[in-house]
Design brief:
Arc Repressor Mutant, subunit A; two-stranded antiparallel sheet; 6 helices; elongated
């Protein structure tokens, strides 16, 4: 992040853009910087969707069907992503405690370590944003985003899904 801004007194053309564009660009910009930093930390092989998978699987794990539903993708697509992450050592399959043919997808220690690095990286990025924007402005932005989400979805918070 270079911190460049429009010189004082000049009109910032972003002010005139649609809300969806501004939200999308903000998300894309923060996510790109977060992913760049994760790449520097040694996780360049992972994509944002992988991080979402790790978040969903964290804890007791899920079946591939549950994962597909949560991500809003087909079972086949979820199976391909699981297979890819399994080859890379981030997940493993184990028998479901309720038996049957179902299998649980579980995070490995490698994935848990990634989540720790990702959490630290995200907190550092947010601290830098607070420093650049000001703590109060960042807190206000968070509050306004919560208000926007609640205004459109009420008490039912929709799942965050990857942007494919």
């Amino acid at each position: 992040m270079n911190g460049a801004s429009v010189p004082p007194g000049d009109h910032d053309p972003l002010v005139d853009d649609e809300l969806t564009f501004l939200l999308g660009i903000a998300f894309q910009t923060v996510l790109a910087e977060f992913n760049r930093r994760l790449g520097v930390a040694g996780y360049g092989e992972l994509r944002p969707a992988h991080g979402m998978i790790f978040q969903i699987l964290h804890g007791p794990g899920r079946t591939s069907t549950e994962l597909a539903e949560q991500l809003g993708i087909t079972k086949q697509a979820a199976g391909q992503m699981i297979a890819e992450l399994e080859v890379r050592g981030y997940v493993r399959r184990q028998d479901h405690p309720k038996g049957g043919r179902r299998r649980l997808i579980i995070l490995t220690d490698k994935a848990v370590a990634h989540l720790q690095v990702a959490g630290t990286t995200l907190h550092q990025l947010e601290a830098e944003l607070a420093e650049k924007m000001g703590d109060a402005d960042l807190a206000r932005l968070r509050e306004q985003l919560v208000q926007l989400i609640r205004a459109l979805s009420g008490s039912q918070i929709p799942p965050l899904r990857p942007v494919w």
